[in-house]
Task: structure prediction
Amino acid sequence: MLDENLPTFYLRPSSDNIKHHASVLLSQYGDEAAPAYSLRHPDPALPGSRNRYAVALYDSYHPDILYGEVLLIPEWTQPSLSQEEIRRNGGIPPAPQPILPTSFVVQLYNPDQQILVQQGVSKWSATPQWVFEMPQQSFRQPSVSSIDRTQSDPTASETTPKLRFKWKKDGKLSKDHVCSLSGKNTNRDGSKRKNREPDITLSIFKNLKEITMYEPNLSRIEMEDPKGLEVVLLLSAIVIREVYNGSMRETFNIPNIPRRLSGSETPPRKNSYERTRKNRTEILPSQAPPQSAPQAPPLRVQTPNTRPPPTDPRSQWEIDAETARLKKQVEREERERRHAEHAETKRIKKMLEEEARTARQKQLDVEKETARLKRQVEKEQRQAPQKNNNTTTIPSLPARPTPNFRPNPHLTGLNLPQPPVQRPHSSASPYRPSGHPYLQTPGSNNASSSVFFHRPPVEGRRVSSKPSKFLGLLGHSSDHQSGQRLSKKQSAVF
Result:
């Protein structure tokens, strides 16, 4: 602070905790700093605030009162036509770079006037300086004449005398800036001789943080609008601080070049064909959603595009770069999709060939086994006749001689059972081996009888099949019981 009695403005962050807002505090005569103005910048997140700089000065106690504002849109470099740079940037022309403007306009309200501030270089110290002019008369003279009312405002008239002001950097290594009123020319003829009044210092911008007004010198200025001069001094000092002494990318809200807009390749995403094929394989038939009736497509309501059209080459370059990136991405995805389809077709073809090879191998195994079984059957058929020829037939035993017994005269009256008639054995009858001499022929229930103790059958006499009850040996006459029980043996001799 140069002097606590002089009016000093301080730039401080806003009390509403908004990053792009600030407060201008005023302190005079040693009093505590109090809010005097509110400084506002557009929201950097809005699309309309990109690639430009804007600041407005409002009243601190009445936020609707706007004193003045500055809008600064930079110029841009022309796109490079060098093929080397385009190739290094991945086939996309390099992004246009902003050019620091050499002038800006301060728009004042009530009365409305535009103050042009131009940047230059001092001839003696080669330090930058900013020059602007303001009219001495800003308001119309009160008049009842209708002709006076039709005339233009004094601020727009070329005949209105103007005062020349200049912001100058106080040394190459210093951050202080001094605003002064250029001295008047004392030559009556208007020649450019060294007959000029010295410059009058009006304000000092100390270390780009506080602005001190020289109130005694301000009273020497012959102007009708000192408030307008104060607003112009504040806004021009803020623009010099933020635009010409700050980062151009942050000042003009230039977004960083994303990686996808540069020449570097983005990492390949998972192919949509693979995702679709995987989703189809994961859905089972039982889990498939039921098919509903086809519905009419919803009506498309065309909504107006809220994004402002591009007004600078930088926005147009971003659109072109994004279009080229999306085109490359579509081509890459199409290429990956064709590659995936080719790989899938190759895999399916290989699988089918493997299945066909397996089927052929199985068929060869079946034919080989069939041939082996066929040879085995033919071999067995060739060996079967040899076995039949080698088998020996056992000769039948000769028939036993049957002794002829004479009938006993004492037993002729007895009805004795007759011995069975022995039939001669046929040579054609097969040999039945017997494990025991007393085994009976299958199917016969008669008891075994001796050949020597049976009487021969008497010719001409009918032999009763039923046993006699003469001796009371067999009291049962039932054929069934006589067939199951054995009769008592009788001797043919005794």
